[in-house]
Design goal:
The protein has three helices and eight strands. It has 168 residues and is of the alpha+beta class. The strands form two sheets. The chain has a four-stranded antiparallel β-sheet with strand order 1-2-3-4, covered by helices on one side. A hairpin with a 2-residue loop joins strand 5 and strand 6. The protein is extended and about 75 Å long. About 5% of the residues have low confidence.
Length: 168
Amino acid sequence: MKRFRWVIAVVVLLVLVAAWGPLHLYRSYMAEATDGRLLYEDWVLANTPISTILQYDRYHGNQMYHIFLGTNAEERKFYVLINEDEHWVVPYSAGYSIDQLMEQVKTSLAPANVEIRHVVPGREEGQLLYEVLAVDDKNQYHYLYYQYYTGENLKEIHLSQPWSLQNQ
């Protein structure tokens, strides 16, 4: 009977340890995302045309930016790209149409069926761009970069797993 209790105790301990890793990773990721929003949200509302925040995202390029999409009092949309060194306010309407961009992505990756997981503006080497993450029906990850104003394709990176898993 004592041996049975020890086996149960060891199994429970192993389950707890196995569950702790993914939970810790998820909490760390969510804390980073939340911290970025909390860190800059008040500053964005006080120092940019945005009076209402509609969406928050992050751009991970050569330089990471926190991305806020919001509206001003006249309901005009703006992006704010911000990090510890700089910030940029970009009129949403000045960019290439996201709907057209999504169609362009689907056409360029045809005949594969693709799910577009995210479209977010960013900056690389002084150039404003869109980053698009699309996943095809073969579970290939396509990171596509387009010029913000024209929709010109700048670069493509195709991976068999998400970028975040490449370095593990």
